[in-house]
Each structure stands twice: as C-alpha cells, then as structure tokens.
Design goal:
Layout (H helix, E strand, L loop, with lengths): L13 H7 L3 H13 L3 E3 L6 E6 L6 E3 L5 E2 L14 H13 L6 H8 L3 H18 L9 E10 L14 E9 L4 E5 L5 H11 L5 E5 L13 E5 L8 E3 L4 E3 L2 H18 L4 H16 L4 H11 L1
Parallel strand pairs: 5-8, 8-9
Antiparallel strand pairs: 1-2, 2-3, 3-4, 5-6, 6-7, 10-11
Helix pairs in contact: 3-9, 4-5, 5-8, 5-9
The structure holds zinc ion.
C-alpha cells in the first residue's frame, strides 16, 4: 500500500530537479549562492569585492583579484566525498518529497551506490534535517501532546506498550504549525512536565490525554485541556477557554511514523530514534513546501 518511490511534487518535480541540477557544477554554484550569496563577494584574503571563477575539474573557486582559493564544500559533509554532488542533492530531494521516509535500500537503488554509502548518506541527511529545524524555538499557540511506543521486537515477543526494546517518544504539535518529537525515559509526571517546560512557550494552550494529570501544567501558567482516551473521548470544546481540545494531529503523526518504520526501516534502535524523529518532524513542520525544505537543507550544510 505504501509507495516507496517519491511522489511527484507539483511544486518541485523530479524533472525540475534535474533541470535545476544537471551536474556537479550546478550543485556547487548553488552552494556558493547559499553560502556566499553568489560568486561576487568580498575576498577573505585580499579584502576586495571581486568575482570568483571556478577551477576546471575541481570543487574550488578562485578570487579574480588575488588568486585566493575558496572551497564551497569546506567544513561540510560534502567535503572529501567521492559521491557526486548531484547524488547528494538528489538524496536530499528524495528526503524532502517522500512521505514515508527513504530507506537505505531505496537510496542504494536510486543513487547506484553501495548499501553502506547509501546508509551513511541517509544518516547525514537526517542530521541536516535536525540542524535545519531550529529546535531552540519554543512552540506557541495551541500545542497538542501525545506519547507513543515505537520500535522493539517485531514478532515472537510480547507486543504493545510494555514490549521489550520499545522506545517511548513524545510528540508536540502546534495546531497548523511546527512539530517536535523527543525520546523520553519514562512517563512519570516530572518527566512529562519537563518536556512541556523545555519546548512550549509559557502561557500557551496545551492539549493532552489523561497521562497529564490536572494541575501538572496549570501551576506553570499553561492552559491545559485533556481528552479521556480511556473513556473513548477524542475531542471536546471548552466554552470558557474558547478552545477545542484534542491530540488528533500528533496521533496522525505517530500513525504515519509507525507505518513508515514498519514499511521502510524494519527496526530502529533507541540510539538512532531521535534522528528518525527529526527527519519526520522536519517534513511535518514544512509540509507543502518542498522547495523551501530543500533550501533549508542546503543552508544547513
Ligand atoms: Zn582575493
């Protein structure tokens, strides 16, 4: 049911991608654009504003005035890579346009590299996604919170909440806005409260399920509403607050995340979980803006 190939985006199609980035020179020019604003800028060596020309067959630009070398990929993950820049760019494109994530196998097939190289490229791009996300910014407005249990044993063992090897994760979503997700050690009241204090702006409205007891957040100035999932209650409107409390956005996110883990990644250990969460929340936060996502990734290099 899940398609593993990237969906053609009306905003940035595969055809458009290859028209924009036909070769490594085009990728390099784009990195120059993002890092230096183009090829004409104040040279770090001679201090004069001058044009920089690309050296043939090298990933290097040269100052027309003094001959100073500029390597656009210096201090980035693209430096010293033998994989063509176009392959890296195309991998980033795939990560921006997919819905269910990109497995190592899929990257291997699309880029024509070894599985080891494909896996490494994938992990680097997930790191870029977490870097590009701006995690320091607090979530504001109306925020939904919902926890989930992911990963762990696929068969043979006991399934469900307490199953061995499962990682506990907490999702936080602004209504119609940004998203974050973090690995948490347990669901104790102090742990939950800490997640909110660390990620949500003071005074914001927070929707949770009954895991968050009343009084846990209101003491810190949050407006708090709970849905009682145990009682099959999924949303309610509070007249006094003028808010509808529910956690459907985050629940939808966990549904997609779990299905994707099942269909593409087979197993994610707790150690790597945060990377995958960052990948999926990056896409959720920037949904519908493939071009914007792609430029954020290049900017995070
Ligand atoms: Zn110079």
């Amino acid at each position: 049911m899940t398609s593993k190939s990237p969906s053609a985006s009306p905003e940035f199609s595969v055809r458009e991608f290859f028209a924009r980035f036909p070769n490594d020179d085009a990728c390099l020019a784009h990195i120059m654009e993002v890092r230096f604003g183009g090829t004409r800028f104040v040279c770090a060596s001679c201090g004069k504003e001058s044009t920089h020309h690309k050296l043939a067959a090298r990933r290097t630009y040269v100052c027309a005035n003094c001959g100073h070398h500029v390597n656009p990929t210096a201090n980035t993950i693209l430096h010293d890579t033998r994989t063509p820049l176009v392959s890296w760019f195309y991998a980033m494109y795939l990560f921006c346009t997919t819905r269910h994530g990109v497995s190592g196998k899929e990257l291997q097939r699309q880029l024509g590299v070894t599985y080891k190289t494909a896996y490494r490229i994938g992990q680097h791009i997930r790191d870029l996604m977490s870097k590009a996300q701006g995690f320091d910014a607090l979530l504001a407005g109306h925020i939904e919170l919902d926890e989930a249990y992911v990963g762990g044993r696929r068969s043979g063992g006991k399934r469900g909440r307490g199953a061995p090897g499962k990682t506990i994760v907490m999702g936080l979503a602004e209504r119609n806005g940004r998203m974050k997700a973090v690995v948490i050690p347990n669901v104790k009241a102090d742990t939950l409260r800490e997640v909110v204090l660390k990620n949500v702006e003071k005074g914001a409205t927070v929707s949770t399920d009954e895991l968050y007891s009343y009084g846990l957040l209101t003491g810190d100035g949050f407006k708090h509403g709970r849905v009682k999932h145990g009682a099959k209650e999924y949303a309610y409107y509070n007249y006094r607050a003028g808010e509808t409390f529910h956690v459907n956005t985050v629940e939808g996110f966990w549904k997609l995340f779990k299905a994707s883990v099942r269909s593409t990644h087979i197993q994610i250990s707790g150690k790597h979980m945060q990377r995958y969460l960052d990948e999926f929340t990056f896409r959720a936060s920037n949904r519908g803006r493939v071009n914007g996502m792609f430029d954020l990734l290049v900017g995070a290099l």
